Amino acid sequence: MGASPASGWRANLVLYAALAANLGIAVAKFVAAAITGSSSMLTEGVHSLVDSGNQVLLLYGQHRAKRPPDAEHPFGYGRELYFWAFVVAILIFGLGAGVSVYEGWRHIQNPEHLRDPLVNYIVLVVALGLEGTSWGIALKEFAASKGEMGWWQAVRRSKDPAGFIVLFEDSAALAGLLVAGIGIWASHAWNDPRIDGAASIVIGLILAAVATLLAREAKGLLIGERANPEVVQCVRTILARQPGIVRVNHVRTIHTAPDRIFVAVSADFDDALTMGAGETLIEGIEQELKATLPMLSSIYIRPEKAEDAAPAVALG
């Protein structure tokens, strides 16, 4: 049964909120940059435009990831979201950070005195309000999903990149707005337009740091990460209490989507079990696993003697 439009909207609330905020802010920043000649405001406009494109890519990735399995992709298309998350990180680095650093360097080499900064300040205040709202929504949603884990641990363990990407993007955007405001004020206060260019470079470095962090997390998801230890332990517990299983050799998992997990189990079955009894036992285990852990989309259970099982060092 598919998700209702309301539930789909709720699931993507963070992305829609960030997209709406960034589109409006980008237009305002470009207008302010054209009126005042501010380099940092121009780079902030590019930043918001890149962020808007990123939200569109993540929404597209989520849509593509929901396609059902087929003959070519028997485990579905869930990991396509991880590919688009990696693309987003590259765009932040290449377009956001690259353009910001270049524009800042160009402004330092050929300084242009800023005109009336009032427009810039108005746009910055409005942008802070919109970005702050989007950041608050992203923070609330991520806090609700992380449970008792610490923030950094939750990011490392998260298998849904959309939530933490928007949170990091909005955090970088707020930091960029503060840097831009300081650069504009200092340029006027000390009558040195090169400071505005230096602010652009600082914004670019902030974006580069965020992009590097996001690329690292997205790469891990794209290559394939195991399920969280709690899921692996739950699978082991269910298997260990089965009367026909002597020993659980290993449990290996991999996320095929944020909410889908493939699990492969090697277990030593009681030698007294007949083939029919073993098949019935495996069927019962699969039903219990799926009832307890609905995210287990594919389950493979292999009867195997403990001494024949391959070692599972550092695997889950």
From TrEMBL:
**Domain Cation efflux protein transmembrane, chain residue ranges per copy:** 16-222
Q: Does the keyword Membrane apply?
A: yes
Q: How does it sit in the membrane?
A: Multi-pass membrane protein
Task: Extract one GO cellular component term from the record.
Answer: membrane
Q: Which InterPro entries match?
A: Cation_efflux, Cation_efflux_CTD, Cation_efflux_CTD_sf, Cation_efflux_TM, Cation_efflux_TMD_sf, SLC30A9
Q: Which superkingdom does the taxonomy of this entry point to?
A: Bacteria
Tell me the first and last residues of the signal peptide.
none
> Could you tell me the keywords of this UniProt record?
Membrane, Transmembrane, Transmembrane helix, Transport
One GO MF term: monoatomic cation transmembrane transporter activity
Name where it's found. Membrane
- Provide the primary localization: membrane
Residues of the Cation efflux protein cytoplasmic domain: 229-304
**This protein's record includes keyword Transport:** yes
Under the heading Pfam families, the entry gives: Cation_efflux, ZT_dimer
Which named protein is this?
Answer: Cation transporter
